[in-house]
Amino acid sequence: MASKRKPIHTPSAAGAAGGNAARPQMNFRQGLNDTTARAEAKGTRPTATPTSIREVLTMMVLHVCKKIIFFDTSLKVPLYLGSLFIVSLIGDFLPYPKTYLARTDNLFNVYFVKLGWAWTLLFAFPYLAMTSITICCGDNQRLIRNHLPRLGIATVFWFVWTKLFNVIESSYGRCSVRGFDAKTPCLKAGHLWNGFDISGHAFILIYSSLVLMEEARPIIGWESIKDLLRNEEHNRSNNDNSQTSNPLKNLKDEDLKALKYFYNRFTPTIRLFFIGMTMLQLLWDLMLVGTMLYHHRMVEKVLSGIIAVVTWFVTYRAWYPLPTVLPDPVGKGLFNYQSISKPEIGLRRRASLLQPGSTAAAGANAGGSPKEIPKFMGMPLYAARQQMSGGSVGAGASPLEGGSASGQQAAFGTATSKRRKMLDNRFHPSG
């Protein structure tokens, strides 16, 4: 009697069938095929244009210039005044060795310092005009009424203080030779006029540096306007009102067009003027060192420095920020592109969720809810849960969710042995 032989399943076919039956489905979003999922995952926001090498180099130069010109004023002002006092005091008793900066006819003194305010206006005025007309979206009246008066006020203060310094020197001085009661005849006769000569050079150098620093502030965040324009144009073309954080959302269509026109037209020139303002400020600081070392007495220089700092503080830090008084502060326009907060990167580390002193660990030790257990891609970290629960397993708890390491190993071994028996029975069936 011939025995019936059972069909033998090949390992490849059985393994494939068994694997497909036992392998869990990895489709996390059931009911959607790959094409639909990829279409929904596609971004709808416009992307930035590729950055050229020239643009990268320009950004590097601008970054260095920002570090120089926007030096912290809480350190810069004390550094100015402290240097005027210490360096000048030493020079009054121990004269410094003569250098090229000690000569009154040196190139920098003749062509730059004596025309210091003219050089300051040469860079600051067009820079202020271009940045202000851009952030005001082409509103010329707002430019003339709210922004240009800042440089006019600074010019008035410069003129008044320098004239007052000359009046004080002429009124409270004497000629080195008797018979001359006025400064001009004394000097024309070849004599010296000894008076309280408040340093006009120290005043103009410090005041110009502070004014340049304040008027250059629109460059901070200037590059973000390009992204804001691109996103806002996309939102308006698609009637997308979901983006509420864009500062350009409340602009009219004609204002948005004017902003784009002036931004694209003036941005390269604004960058050049900003670099020039930075170089000019470095020159003013260099000439200020020469003034500290070789010209005027300590009292005359310190007093002029104090007047320059007080004038800057009263105007740019106390007067202009007032909301109901003109002129407007630097950078104020029809939108506020500098108010976008950026996350702090690399400044402070967050407390580890596995650290015993962290809030999550404290909540778990105090009997907090399972939601406080740290997760990765939606799955709980069992090792962290074990550590937070103190290694104990509650009643009815799964060995994989809590318990000792030996319990987890035993559970893993039991599951492995069952898996092996199932595969043996499938691949090597009994007769």
From TrEMBL:
Which Gene Ontology terms describe the biological processes this protein takes part in? lipid droplet organization; lipid storage; phospholipid biosynthetic process
Q: Which parts pass through the membrane?
A: 77-96, 116-136, 270-290
State the compartments where it is located. Answer: Endoplasmic reticulum membrane
Q: Name one Pfam family in it.
A: FIT
What segments bear the compositional bias annotation Low complexity?
A: 13-22, 402-416
List, alphabetically, the GO terms of the cellular component aspect.
Answer: endoplasmic reticulum membrane
Query: What is the name attached to this protein's record?
Result: Uncharacterized protein
Q: Where is the composition biased (Basic and acidic residues)?
A: 422-431
Q: Does the keyword Endoplasmic reticulum apply?
A: yes
Membrane topology label:
Multi-pass membrane protein
One Gene Ontology MF term: coenzyme A diphosphatase activity
Annotated segments matching region Disordered:
1-23, 393-431
Keywords noted in UniProt: Endoplasmic reticulum, Hydrolase, Lipid metabolism, Membrane, Transmembrane, Transmembrane helix
